[in-house]
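Collaborator request, handled under Task 6.
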Amino acid sequence: MCDTLRGDALLDPEGRYDTPNLDRLAADGTLFPRAFTHAPMTLPAHTALFSSRPPLETTVWNNGEPVPGTLPLLSEWMLGHGYQTRAVISLATLSLGRGQPGVSRGFESYDVGFWRMVTGPAAAARARAGLEALDPGRPAFYFAHFCDPHEPYDAHGSEANEAELTLDGKTLERLPTSEATQWLHTLELAPGRHEFALRSKERFRPRWFAARAGGHELEVTWLEGERMQATRRARLALEVQGDAARRVDLELWINDVPSDAEKVVRYAREVAASDAAIGELLDELRAQGRYDAALIVFTSDHGESLGEHGHFGHVDGLTDEQIHVPLIVKLPAGDPRRARLAERAGRLTPHMDLAPTILDLVGLPPLPGARGQSLLGAHEALLISETHTPEADRTLLALRDERFKLLYFPDERRFEMYDLERDPGELTDVYAERGGERPDWPARLEGLARAGAEQKQGRAGADAALQADLEALGYGGGEDL
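Structure tokens returned to the collaborator:
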């Protein structure tokens, strides 16, 4: 899984992206050019993929929400049928939840040994180590998650912006900002008030600042600027209690704020870096002699807007740049079913079909309650995609087939329809003229929206600490990230 990778990163008609390792994997397997996620948000998308059910059925609409313990998951199903199950995760969105059940259920090992976000090289090293830990005598279900090219986009050497960090007026360190920096440091601080300041010639965003002493969080007061605010200067203070110096563990996460044009360039650099990291994992499979015999499925949880429809980021929309994802299925060498996959590859492919396909390919019974169907069979697909408040600005649902996409805005009780064959950029709403060509879709979306609203009633929101974590990861912070 390559988080936030657009579907056109592999199709790439304009030659914008450099993906030699994924191109090689696609040549060894089958590329599905019309694959789509069910949510432009990490946890809802992963839950839909692992359960083969849409978010309205999983009831996981936002990041940080619990995954119901009664919801059958692919990892749990594989474990119950004799597979060893292991996951290596690079983004905290898949581990947040304050002890509540998540998509880790069913994994014997779920490696989240990181702070909040781990970039390609470190993620690849941990993924390779996870492979080495597998028991060669048992079949394995292995999930490797790479968080790039998720925002914040690193410059990868194209820029060298930095911020000065001072403590009580004295320079403590100069921190890179054009490569997002997670700074962990321990200082011995005297009793009393201490002031930290950050200054830079270029705008930066202090995503996170925390201080702990003796296992307890110290209160931090923002004097100038605030967390997640784009600025050139920020100041904050903390108080060390008692009458003796204390060892204080400090955490700071900071990145610069590129222009919209630079975001597009950096995203492409992030894609290239992700491809290199994934290539390391694939090379490790080859070195261990496992590659040829392996069933490998590569995809992304969702895409990313890069200025289309006036938007950068994901979460807030269901346009194709946010829900179109890459998909490659590489069968074991010599598997005769590759021709059947190739026949199906050009058609609409919902993420819900992946779990049924994997189970079909390895000869295991279907996942209970799965809504998707195996790609080995011929069927007409209909995609449902959703995004929900409070992380999204507004709840939005969509149905999509090979020709049309119908969007429903429940708060406004309004529809938009796009003819994707004639208008792939989704620029012209044709609902008034063409809505009758899918006559049952409006009522279906209205019914789904009503059911979702009823389910949400009484649902408790994220606690303050969890909300702060999610905002630091770019979700729910009130800005397009």
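The cover message to the collaborator said: "The chain has three domains: 8-153+262-378, 162-256, 396-472. The CA atoms of residues 259 and 265 lie 10 Å apart. Please let us know whether this matches your experimental observations."
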